[in-house]
Amino acid sequence: MAGKTFEGLTVGAVFEHEIRRTVTETDNLLFSAMTHNPQPLHIDAEFAGKSQHGRVLVNSLYTLGLVIGISVSETTLGTTIGNLGMENVEFPHPVFIGDTLRVTTVIKDKLASKSKPDRGVVWFEHSAYNQRGELVCQCLRKGMMIRDSHLNTTN
């Protein structure tokens, strides 16, 4: 498994994720359509061109999903039980079509479950930066992680 277990995630650890992703018009349009979001800032170039941004603004929920998705292969792939929530989600700078995002993750805290010994909670702080080094997204994600002693093993 590529993901880390509860014990494998140390408070203070920093992950500089190697995957970078350039956001395309198709990414933004498909995500907006699939989530039934008709906001013209995301799907209407003529409307968006007359806005304060002067161009199409990438759907912020797509940005958040991409940021978390980029982190998965090095943190939670196959080792998470599920997300418990996201806090302090911020988008300090907009994301535009053609921006390339890079992501870092810091393990902020963790707590072993007292009632369920097969799991624990880990707080992941994800931060995304565009090609100019501007912070475009940050969130604190709480994930339920499997413990080492409860991994499925085959004999």
Structure commentary:
The protein has 155 residues and is α+β, with helices and mostly antiparallel strands. It has one domain: Thiol Ester Dehydrase, Chain A, CATH 3.10.129. Helices cover 23% and strands 34% of the residues. It contains 4 helices and 6 strands. Strands 1, 2, 3, 4, 5 and 6 form a 6-stranded antiparallel beta sheet that branches. A hairpin with a 5-residue loop joins strand 5 and strand 6. The longest helix has 16 residues.
Any chance you could write out the topology, listing elements then pairs?
Blueprint: E1 14-16, E2 21-22, H1 25-34, H2 40-43, H3 45-49, H4 60-75, E3 80-90, E4 100-112, E5 119-129, E6 135-146
Antiparallel strand pairs: 1-4, 2-4, 3-6, 4-5, 5-6
CATH superfamily: Hotdog Thioesterase
Q: How confident overall, as mean pLDDT?
A: 94
* Separate helix tally: 4
User: What string gives the helices and strands in order?
Assistant: EEHHHHEEEE
CATH architect. name: Roll
In CATH, what is the class?
Alpha Beta
Helix content: 10-25%
Shape by Cα distribution: elongated
Biggest sheet features: 6 strands, antiparallel
Number of strand elements: 6
Strand coverage percent: 25-35%
Brief summary of the model shown:
The protein is 23% helix and 34% strand. The chain is α+β, with helices and mostly antiparallel strands.
Features:
single chain, alpha+beta, about 160 residues, 4 helices, 6-stranded antiparallel β-sheet, about 25% helix, Thiol Ester Dehydrase, Chain A
